[in-house]
Write a structure and sequence with these properties.
Nucleotidyltransferase, domain 5, five-stranded mixed beta sheet, DNA-binding (chains A, B), homodimer, crossover junction DNA endonuclease activity (chains A, B), EC 3.1.21.10 (chains A, B), globular, alpha/beta
Chain lengths: ~180, ~180
């Protein structure tokens, strides 16, 4: 399973590609940051994010894209840019037919450190260990993107079983079936 | 001046095209709503919004796109979808090199009704009068999109004069000049 993790942001959008399956050692295929200038017009910044994400999709051909789920209770100005950058990442993936998964920050932290309240340093340290890197990826957005990809690989089996159970249930009870 | 107004939303994205200049009667060239199913995946909804906006840009070839500026103090769930739909609209315009302007809801209300606190019905009534329509456009999102386009046409002369003044000032004082 090859996953592109995206930690969305307008100024720094972290991206990281991880390959592997749950229960086996994982491999990092690439990590980086898509940056856009803070003084550029918003529309141009979104185009730059789109071009950056497209390059990563072209180069690594991931089977899944995992994006951090954005909440609006944080800083008002930041959250808008984050929501907009995440929209561009989801759009790029969905346009290619690549399934998009959203994971909350606490899901990601819990997946890689065991605690949903872990700090940046702890996440960076575990990403470094799990991917057998020589040093923590920098900036933190890049490490977070890798953590998202790892989280998706590890959570996917459970999610697939859940989806299969739901599919089985709705197949048995067509009157309650939901549209895809 | 031909302007596409966009009242962003995932479930209903209002779109309206108005042509004219400040101080002269305005003409509506088109109005509608881009809808996406609430039970579809977010990525697919964003792709549907993109396709809808692209169709409107193709058909009407606007010189400007005016999008409602999204604030995050409103309903948390709604504002995320609104921010994401607005990102897609801005992206579509900027990709084509069409300038994007953001106007706040109160700027739009003040422009078309004289009051920044006008209600939906008042905005609808003024849009109907200003564009000489036989009835208010429905749903309200469609009327709001037209109001955005009207607001942009009316505010553009003042904004242009401001930009020219800034450009003149920075040309005279190059040491304080800002990067574009």
């Amino acid at each position: 399973m090859r996953v592109l993790g995206v930690d969305p942001g307008l100024t720094r959008c972290g991206v990281g590609v991880v390959e592997g399956v749950a229960g086996r050692p994982l491999t990092m295929l690439g990590v980086g940051v898509v940056r856009t200038p803070a003084d550029a017009e918003l529309g141009h910044r979104l185009v730059a994010v789109e071009q950056g994400i497209e390059q990563w999709l072209d180069e690594h051909q991931p089977e899944f894209v995992a994006v951090e789920r954005v909440f609006s209770q944080h800083n008002v100005r930041t959250v808008m840019g984050t929501a907009q950058a995440s929209a561009v990442a989801m759009l790029c993936a969905a346009r290619r037919g690549i399934p998009v998964a959203l994971h909350t920050p606490s899901e990601v932290k819990a997946a890689v450190t065991g605690s949903g309240r872990a700090d940046k340093a702890q996440v960076g340290a575990m990403v470094t260990r799990l991917l057998r890197l020589s040093a923590p990826p920098k900036p933190a957005d890049a490490a977070d993107a890798l953590a998202l990809a790892i989280c998706h690989i590890w959570r996917a089996p459970a999610q697939n079983r859940l989806q299969q159970a739901v599919a089985l249930h709705t197949a048995k009870a067509p009157s309650k079936g939901r549209l895809a």
